[in-house]
Design a protein that fits this description.
The complex is a heterotrimer of chains A (347), B (281) and C (282). With 347 residues, chain A is of the alpha+beta class. Helices cover 24% and strands 36% of the residues of chain A. Chain A starts with a strand and ends with a strand. The model of chain A has no long low-confidence stretch (mean pLDDT 92). Chain B is mainly α and 281 residues long. Chain B has a single domain, classed as Orthogonal Bundle (MetI-like fold), CATH 1.10.3720.10. In chain B, 73% of the residues lie in helices and 1% in strands. Chain B has a two-stranded antiparallel sheet. The mean pLDDT of chain B is 84. Chain C is built from 13 helices and no strands. Mean pLDDT of chain C is 82; it is low at 1-8. The chains are: A alpha+beta (347), B mainly alpha (281), C mainly alpha (282). Chains in contact: A-C, B-C. Chains A and C meet through β6 and α2 of A and α8 and α9 of C.
Chain lengths: 347, 281, 282
């Protein structure tokens, strides 16, 4: 059982706090993605679980064992680094075998495991090459194979795809998903790419400025963002935000439209709707079209709502041109509300 | 073991070594220079400066440094520029230019002795070409000037490589784009060198000059090989007082003098050739 | 479509460029001769008979007579001096790398209070005319029995070589990504095992080069050797102290013995020369 528990872990570097008392529980065999922009603390958290950083406060447990004071080699983890860290002076075979040799496995077992993992990652023909002779994508496969060969309780991955070009990234993403699912290992995967997160994760922990803002399944994070940041970070094109003024208790005025909303003492809150949840229909938000981009599968319209940018993803048959005035009606169950001060979601 | 203590353990041998075999002797030398028979005094310095050879010694050393270093700077800059502009045969030429780095100053002195001594190669050439009938005594007691010139030549030959290597490394750091941009804006070769390369080379120039100047005041074996006692220099006199005259205190006074001059010039060049951090590459 | 345009640079016509190329080649040749000729002349002397060395006029090519060299090698004290030079240089090499490499590693991998102070100490040693240290150390060595020993001299030479060793290994280790060590830690290595299995193989060529460099520094050093060794003189001390009395052919054969190993060493580490000197002076 490799359940991971992160309890009130904080990390400070001098006067800078990288992590503010983070709590997170990851179930056995779960694929957890830490998602956020650079500097949000996701890599720091990963390195604390790995044992490459020590937490200023808090505890880390793996499989019922407290491990935050243990060196990396005693934690039952394996790691894939962003720049692969493939040893240049060893062949691919010896790279993958490295951890196995440290464990003093007999040669026959070493050979078996190395070959099996190499086949899994489609690099069996490269076993006797050196990393200098490999492409970036191949080196990345070696790094993953090296981690998998350890058959660890937990695999940690630090932005493993970010140094690959776009097409390769797409291929590897699909491959990784298959390989990691089959290996039945608890995985923590760090990335700033929300598409990767949505595609790979069982659950996503969205991080911002050293805190976990929301930890939920991809669908949940997408449809019910717990904070304004989550809504704006996930989704392409991003969520639209418009100020809403109180009309009566439970009823709000948004860009000329009156809409049913949460009961609150506040006079102003924020109304949010995703671009794809809008239809052209009377009684909606008053929008003046600025740019129309026919993208084939759909049409992206960028409009002006009360002086701010507002985007709508509309049917590809939509005919609109710059200057047109449209009424964009949001799907009622897809509307989200946020508190302008705390940025938390309101119901 | 506390992981935080690891760097200190790793550093300990080197620190200990330098404290015992550098700082401590340094303090000892200072003490010897400023004392005699246990009492603090400036007598050693008076004796040093009062000696009849002293003015010549000081003048020779300073003159050597003042003449040799600029010559070497110019030569090193030329060599470095040439090497930077080569593509084929670059590493071979670089190796050849760098050969003097591995040559002891004593060996260099002996090498140029072979050229300048009375039955040496220079005389052979001069007589052979009919410039003179008899071999000339370049290194004799009366020929202070030719000894000086021989030493200058030997030093320039030997120690230019030290500066060149530093400058080559510094030039390697200057991205080609700067020179190319200057070229696009109309700067010719010389202008590019003086307005782009040299300013960007300042940190390396500073290092090279300081290092070479300090070494210049330490000149010893080359002079001993070529001039014997005919061309006194500070380091040579230090050696002489320590062994021939058996006076450790005055020898220490000389050592302090050399140190003071080195520090003074180091500070001067640190100031004159300083580059603020923002202006670096 | 249109004809291919020539790719001559805007700065010079082909004729001017060609002339400049020839000028460059000429200058390079002159400089190479400037560097190599004196060494060649020493070689000529070393490989000539004693009579030819003291005779006049000189010939510009060696007669390949081993008379001078034989005289040199058989001269009293020379063999011992050669051996002492080797001994001292080997000690220096071992000590400067053994002490300097851990320091270089610590500087490259860790941030800690006192880091700048240490770097300053190392830098300070270069501002000081180090051979002068031999003077007080001579006294200290007499008291501790290290006087006139290879080990004692090696200590002074290590002081000379140590700053280089520290700075070169610092730069060497800094060039090896710390991620490689981290990966080794996650694969079951202790800190030391990771260093030994991953960092050392990659740093070895550079460390070997700086070891050879330390050897060369010691081999060539004159002042301290002359001050600190009497019975157990090194080659440099021997040659210096016999300058007044030795015959010319002895001097030149001795110079030859000094120069040839150094030439070989510099050739062996030529790839690292510029990296080392360039870095060591940052």
């Amino acid at each position: 059982m490799a359940e991971i528990q992160i309890k009130k872990v904080a990390k400070r570097f001098g006067s800078f706090t990288a992590l503010h008392q983070v709590d997170l529980t990851i179930s056995d065999q779960e694929f957890m993605v830490l998602l956020g922009a650079s500097g949000c603390g996701k890599t720091t958290l990963l390195r604390i679980v790995a044992g490459l950083e020590t937490p200023s406060e808090g505890e880390v447990w793996i499989g019922g064992r407290r491990i935050d004071h243990l060196p990396p080699r005693e934690r039952g983890i394996a790691m894939v680094f962003q720049n692969y860290a493939v040893f240049p002076h060893l062949t691919v075979f010896e790279n993958i075998a490295f951890g196995l040799r440290m464990k003093k496995l007999p040669q026959a077992d070493v050979e078996k495991r190395v070959r099996r993992t190499a086949e899994l990652m489609h690099i069996e023909q490269l076993l006797y090459r050196y990393s200098g002779q490999l492409s970036g994508g191949q080196r990345q496969r070696v790094a993953v194979a090296r981690a998998l060969a350890m058959e660890p309780d937990v695999i940690l991955m630090d932005e493993p795809l970010s140094n690959l070009d776009a097409l390769l990234r797409l291929e590897m993403r699909a491959e990784l998903k298959g390989v990691l699912a089959a290996s039945k290992t608890t995985t923590i995967y760090v990335t700033h790419d929300q598409v990767e997160a949505m595609s790979l994760a069982d659950r996503i922990a969205v991080m911002h400025q050293g805190r976990i803002v929301q930890a939920a399944s991809p669908v949940e994070v997408y449809r019910n963002p717990a904070a304004r940041f989550v809504g704006s970070f996930i989704g392409n094109p991003p969520m639209n935000f418009i100020p809403a003024t109180k009309a009566t208790n439970g009823s709000w005025t948004v860009a000329g439209m009156t809409v049913h909303g949460p009961k609150s003492d506040k006079r102003q809150i924020e109304f949010a709707i995703r671009p794809e949840d809008l239809d052209i229909s009377p009684g909606g938000i008053d929008a003046t079209v600025r740019v129309v981009e026919p993208l084939g599968a759909h049409t992206l319209v960028t409009a002006d709502v009360e002086g701010k940018l507002f985007r709508a993803v509309l049917d590809s048959t939509t005919e609109a041109k710059t200057g047109d005035r449209l009424s964009l009606k949001p799907k009622p169950d897809r509307v989200r509300w946020f508190d302008p001060e705390t940025n938390a979601a309101l119901n | 073991m506390n992981p935080k203590a690891l760097p200190y353990y790793l550093l300990a041998p080197a620190t200990l070594f330098l404290v015992v075999f550098f700082l401590y002797p340094f303090v000892l030398v200072a003490w010897e220079a400023f004392s005699r028979d246990g009492a603090v005094t400036l007598d050693n310095f008076r004796e040093m400066t009062g000696h009849w050879k002293f003015p010549d010694t000081l003048r020779n050393t300073m003159l050597l440094a003042v003449i040799v270093v600029p010559l070497q700077l110019a030569l090193a800059l030329s060599m470095a520029s040439i090497v930077s502009n080569l593509d084929r045969g670059r590493s071979a030429i670089l190796y050849i230019f760098a050969i003097p780095l591995g040559i002891s100053d004593l060996a260099a002195g002996l090498i140029w002795l072979a050229i300048f001594e009375q039955s040496g190669f220079l005389n052979t050439m001069l007589v052979g070409l009919g410039v003179t009938d008899q071999p000339v005594m370049f290194l004799g007691f009366q020929s202070k000037l030719s000894i000086f010139i021989a030493v200058v030549l030997a030093e320039v030959w030997r120690a230019t490589a030290i500066m060149m290597v530093i400058l080559v490394a510094g030039m390697g750091l200057i991205p080609k784009e700067y020179g190319e941009a200057a070229e696009v804006f109309g700067a010719g070769r010389w202008k590019r060198f003086t307005k782009v390369t040299l300013p960007l080379l300042r940190p390396s120039l500073q290092t090279a000059i300081i290092l070479r100047v300090i070494l210049a005041f330490e000149v010893f074996a080359v002079v001993a090989a070529l001039g014997g006692t005919n061309l006194p220099v500070l380091m040579g006199e230090t050696y002489h007082w320590q062994f021939a005259l058996q006076d450790r205190n005055v020898a220490a006074a000389f050592a302090m003098l050399i140190l003071a001059i080195s520090i003074a010039f180091t500070l001067f060049f640190l100031y004159a050739l300083r580059v603020p951090k923002e202006a670096r590459i | 479509m249109t004809a291919v345009t020539s790719d001559a640079p805007a700065t010079a016509y082909p004729e001017v460029r060609k002339a400049r190329n020839w000028l460059l080649i000429a200058i390079v040749v002159v400089l190479c001769v400037w560097v190599l000729l004196p060494i060649y002349l020493l070689l000529v002397n070393a490989l000539s008979s004693p009579n030819e060395v003291t005779g006049f006029p000189k010939r510009f090519w060696p007669s390949f007579d081993t008379g001078s060299l034989a005289f040199f090698v058989n001269f009293a004290g020379v063999a011992k001096a050669l051996w002492n030079s080797v001994l001292v240089a080997v000690f220096t090499m071992i000590m400067s790398i053994g002490i300097g490499a851990p320091a270089g590693y610590a500087l490259s991998r860790f941030d800690f209070p006192g880091k700048e102070a240490f770097r300053f100490l190392v830098l300070m040693t270069r501002a000081f005319p180090l051979p002068l240290l031999a003077l007080p150390l001579a006294v200290m060595f007499i008291r501790t029995g290290l006087d006139d020993t290879a080990f004692g001299l090696a200590i002074v030479h290590t002081t000379l070589a140590l700053p280089f060793a520290v700075l070169i290994t610092f730069s060497l280790f800094s060039g090896i990504p710390v991620e490689l060590e981290e990966a080794a830690w996650t694969l079951g290595c202790t800190r030391f095992q990771a260093f030994w299995k991953v960092v050392m193989p990659l740093a070895l060529p550079g460390i070997a080069a700086s070891a050879v460099f330390a050897f060369t520094i010691s081999w060539n050093e004159v002042f301290a050797a002359a001050v600190l060794t009497i019975e157990n003189r090194t080659l440099t001390a021997f040659l210096l102290q016999s300058l007044n009395v030795s015959p010319l052919y002895l001097k030149f054969a001795g110079g030859f013995a000094l120069v040839v190993p150094a030439l070989i060493f510099i050739f062996a580490v030529r790839k690292y020369l510029f990296a080392m000197w360039g870095i060591a002076n940052r």
